[in-house]
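FAQ: What does a multi-protein file look like?

Like this. Sequence, then tokens, then the next protein.
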Amino acid sequence: MSKKSALGKGMEGLLPTGFDVGAVASPGEKVQQLDVSKIYPNESQPRKTFDSEALKELSQSIAEHGVIQPLIVGARKGSGKHEIIAGERRWRASKLAGLKTVPAIVRDTKEQQKLEIAIIENVQRVDLTPLEEAMSIYKLKHEFSLSLQEIAKKLGKASTTISNTMRLLQLTKRAKEALMNNEITEGHARALLSLTDVEQQDILLNTIITHNLSVREAEQAAKNIKAVKTEKLTPAAHKAPFTISKDTKQSLAGVSKKLATQLSFNASKSQLLITVENENTLKDILNKLDRD
């Protein structure tokens, strides 16, 4: 295949790989150089932790090539300072690289728009941890009254994916810590959530970590745990009831007369019941059975 000229691709051919075209200034906006010391993180920013090694690598790239993609910031009225809407990772890396100024687009947005832009950038470009993303979705849903369908559309994901991600907040404290510390994956977390009993979740969590189970193995283990619980709750559910013949009934009556107590058979539960009035009666029955 022949190699096309960059100019033949139009403007996209002139943009560096990974450049976010959505960050290009809209009409009336312009990219300007802002003092890094007068830029502050957005309190609504969903990302709370940043990988130090990744920041170091980005700072080295910025030191060599500069900040290719502008930050998006909002002006703090009357302070001469700006709040980051999108691009905190680039801002932190720029500070590490020793830059005094960074390119930025000053944009006047409402609180909801700030959070939405911050979440969308992180989810689509940097990736929040699963729990950070779940918290972000929760905030959009409950603080800004957005439906899961609306959130899914904004993030470019299926509604079921958004719903499953938010369910991660239902994990136990121990499971959340394991997920944050990369002891388990999001797939393992979903297997845990298939169990409604908290104790069973913790048992499965310990099994996953101790035996280094794959997601598929964890899912099977969860099914096995649920099957055991179901069997304990309904022990006769898997046993087909049966009837006893006339001869067997006569034999049962004979044993009942010999033991001087009432014997009855419950076909639905497959149980043979012995009626005992007191401890002495029980002892007599046991002695008779022992002699036989």
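And here is the next protein:
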Amino acid sequence: MNAENLPLKQRPFDLFLAVVFAVFAVTTAMADFMPSLGVELTPDSPNFLVRMNYAYAADTDPLFLRHPFWMRLVTGLSAFVYAPFYVVLVWALVKGKNGIQLPAGAGVRGGAVRRARVAHAESGEVPAAERAVRGDAIGAAGAHAQGDAVHAEVLTPHPWTAWEAIASAPAGAYDSGAMTAVPHLTRARPRVAPPSPWRLTRARYHQLGELGVFDGRRVQLLEGTVFDMSPMGSPHSTAIRVLNRVLTSATVDLGLDVMVQLPLAASDDSEPEPDFAIIPTPVDELTDHPPTALLVIEVADSSLKLDLGLKAALYAACRVPEYWVIDLNGGTTVVHRRPGRSGYGSTRRVPWDKELKSSAVPSVKLTLSTVLRRARS
């Protein structure tokens, strides 16, 4: 099968044009032949087409009823030149005679590329026309090697309209088959990088804090983004106060330190401030914020989604062996264990009326329904 003889079903753009111009041929014959020949339009004519034209002219175009000489010339041009051309065009589209459909070169995806594929099928190579239309680096480099002004290393293709392409192509650029000058259907413009958020490091975050940018606001740095911390309601503050006494009492004899809403240096771009972090080294012996903790506890009210999502991934990444999220609204505690690169390997929800016992700090064990009965009131 050659490039000029593809089945019509494989040329949907040609099929569409064939239908459109077939309709044009019929309507032109119906509307233009009789005014051109000077046929009198009357409502009672035995000729159906005469009656149809009269109905149209009487309601829409009274000039048709009088058809002066100059109008007969115009309609004659349409009837005796355009109408036959439409018929020939439909025939050419159906038969795949590409020479008559030059403007259809704009449909490079459905027409030129498909014909170029057939024309180059035996060689097993991707046609230059298709490479240029796809706009990949190989196609652009190939066009450059053939003398086209597309530089693959600095420019990317941008589609032109059909008329821009035809007007800009050199004489004889298009043949009747695979349209070998399809590279002229692209023009190059500079590549523009998409916008990306500016992610803060901990050092920059501290510099902004020293400049007073965050004065009067409670914030924390999570994966390069500064998050406002929610205002603390009465249940939240009560839970912090009660749990602080319980955790301190459980760890005081073990040489552990309980940090309350103090920063962890989790990574170069993250510095969360958990409600509680139990660390093995006393705070006064550290030169920087501790990078991890044995047990981290967040008391969640409006922050539940953040605590179970981004923060859970962050604590797992900095190897916190156990992480609790106390859900003040749900009356449960979500216990995370076995940290890994993709998060915690074990997650379970424990009701407040069941005893919680930490595997990382065994001395920490409590029943929250008793400890926090005032926090939910």
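Q: Is there any per-entry metadata?
A: Some entries carry free-text notes. For the entry above: The chain is about 40% helix and 15% strand.
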